Amino acid sequence: EQTVKREKQFTQDASHELRTPIAAIISSCEYMTDYAKTYEDIKESAEGVKKEAQRMSKLISELLTISRMDNNTIRLNFEAFDFGELLEFVCDEQEEIHNENITLHRNIAKNVTVTADRFMLARLCINLISNAYTYGKDNGNITVTLTQNADNVIMSVSDDGIGIAEENIPKIWERFYQADPSRTVGENGNMGLGLSMVRWIAECHNGKITVSSTLGKGSTFTLVMPVHK
Asked: If we measure between CA atoms, which residue out of 108, 118, 18 comes closest to residue 62?
């Protein structure tokens, strides 16, 4: 019964998330065909269509990934690589993508070699850092840390943003849950699917993802993962 309920809710949530960009695309197209008179009007509407189409593309891609996760059809490719180099690359990319007035700090150890799926581990890092930007505050800070001990690597992403109420912490791993739905913005917006992916990826690597958070003060997500497969 719980499985059927979750599937029904997932379908409803996915339909709702797709309905919003579709409505925006239709509205922009109607404006272009019925009211636009200048090139600037058409260009502005076309940019709106592009933004919403990118948002839909990202959502559909994430839905397909989740479907493959549920059906156990994702083949992981474990290989040895430098986690620090990968994390530095992800940080560089996220700084370029996000134009928020937030400073990204790094405390990333060198020569941290892990045996993992490079693509999936990158997706985990992207989701956590993007999430920190989404729920950060103006003139705020994000700190990305990577350390290693004899058996595990520990990666954490901390922010000083809106935080999460204690009673809502268990809900953040649910699909489509958003601590603040008003912060979903364009193609870079958080659609509430990222953290469910993060937990799945961590578990596939025999790792664990935890969160500590204080409402109004920020959150810290921490991944503890074995060095070797």
From this structure: 18
Q: pTM, whole model, 2 decimals?
A: 0.72
pLDDT the model gives residue 109 = 95
Where does residue 219 fall: left (phi above 0), alpha (psi -120 to 50 degrees), or beta otherwise?
Answer: beta
Q: Residue type for 189, please?
A: G
- Using only C-alpha atoms, the chain has a radius of gyration, in whole angstroms, of 19
CB-based contact 159:179 (threshold 8 Å): no
- Using an 8 Å Cβ cutoff, are 140 and 161 in contact? yes
134-166 b/e with 16+ CB inside 10 Å = b?
bbbbeebbbbbbbebeeebbbbbbbbbbbbbee
Residue with tokens 């997706």: 123
Beta bridge partners, 117, equal 78
